[in-house]
Automatic annotation (TrEMBL):
Record InterPro entries: Endonuclease_MobA/VirD2
Compositionally biased residues, Basic and acidic residues: 66-92
Chain segments carrying region Disordered: 66-99
Gene source species: Clavibacter michiganensis subsp. insidiosus
Record-annotated MobA/VirD2-like nuclease domain positions: 9-69
Top-rank taxon: Bacteria
Protein name: MobA/VirD2-like nuclease domain-containing protein
Amino acid sequence: MRRMGYAGEGIGKADCRWVAVRHGLSKNGNDHIHIAVSLVREDGTQAHMPYDRLRSQEVSRDIERDYGLRPMHDTDRSVAQRGEHPGERESATRPGASEVDAKCLERTVRAAAGASQDEAEFVRRMRRDGVLIRPRFAAGRDDVVAGYSVALRPEKSQPVVGHGGGRLSRDLTLPELRRGWPDHPERTTEATAEWRATAKNRWQYKPVTPGREESEIDPALFQMYSDDMARLHEYVAEVGPNDHATWAHVARDTSAADAAWSRRLRCRR
């Protein structure tokens, strides 16, 4: 209340009366409270709070940082990874899950995108990971894909909860993902065929042209990967702390590997 300017020492105005009510546990076991504030101050003047919604979000972020809480919804447009809306935890489709579906989906998308050499392979890898994926075609077209949405397969009788790539993270929109893949007409045609197949039946989607994702990794490659990581560590150690462009590039390239590792540990159903 003090940080919002409604009540407390140092606000320079009469206090607004307010009450905090414990609502109790939600259906998923999340304890929470509601706060109600009278906008008429004790001296009879009206509390004028322009941009109160924006201000409340700023205060919420401050409180989350002060107490080490998980951010619920990030308003910082410079941050790619988004926070969580309160309602997302209420509507999680996996009973007993320790995180919302969007977090698991974000890691799955990031790992699949990083492992894929083109867009068609990305669609196929999402299918291999058991994710429901469907395209968003450009208006009036069925051959131009402008975006996508993904969802975990729901438990029995539960609804499908879809998440657009941009809702998972601002760097996981389809245009952003495409920046990491070759831009060739032939590759585009192959990707469109896979998108059409999953749009036709995302529940039983079968790849049009299976690719290298169906092959087992050659054990001999692990040593090469280990050597690559060693070189990356040496390179990162020499990057200056203020070289933001290079750090952003490194973060993007390594996030897919981190996501794949994390997914194996946390996203098993």
